[in-house]
Specification:
4 helices
Length: 131
């Protein structure tokens, strides 16, 4: 039986997806196919200094969210907003499931799930659940 909520912790190397309810939590780890290394701008060099987005990585995260009704995206860097932009462009039905994007540091799996449960308890009190 699919879970109603999920949280995605993401950086440029991996995404940890946790579909959950009050009693249970599942975990899926998705690794970037070509993890970007930190790139610095250098004068006189052609190019933007940005690594190309790993579309297959973001698509795999979207697939992992296909069975949930609402999801929260968290993480320390810019991968979370890149994922949201990817979803808006390529998977709008999944993008509609994203309720928020939050900046958090590197957390343990238990801390990520606890953060998400706390977030959704507060959010669910403020609006009726869809689905």
């Amino acid at each position: 039986m699919p879970h109603y909520h999920a949280v995605v912790w993401i950086d440029h190397r991996e995404a940890r997806v946790f579909p959950f309810n009050a009693e249970e939590v599942d975990k899926l780890v998705i690794h970037a196919h070509n993890p970007a290394h930190q790139i610095h701008h250098k004068a006189g060099v052609l190019g933007s200094g940005h690594a190309a987005e790993d579309q297959a990585f973001y698509h795999a995260v979207a697939q992992a969210l296909s069975t949930v009704h609402e999801a929260l995206i968290v993480g320390p860097g810019q991968a979370k907003t890149a994922l949201l932009k990817h979803l808006a462009r390529h998977d709008p039905q999944i993008a509609d499931k994203i309720v928020a994007v939050e900046t958090v540091d590197h957390l343990s799996d238990g801390q990520v799930v606890a953060f998400a449960r706390k977030y959704f308890v507060a959010a669910d009190r403020m609006r009726p659940q869809r689905g």
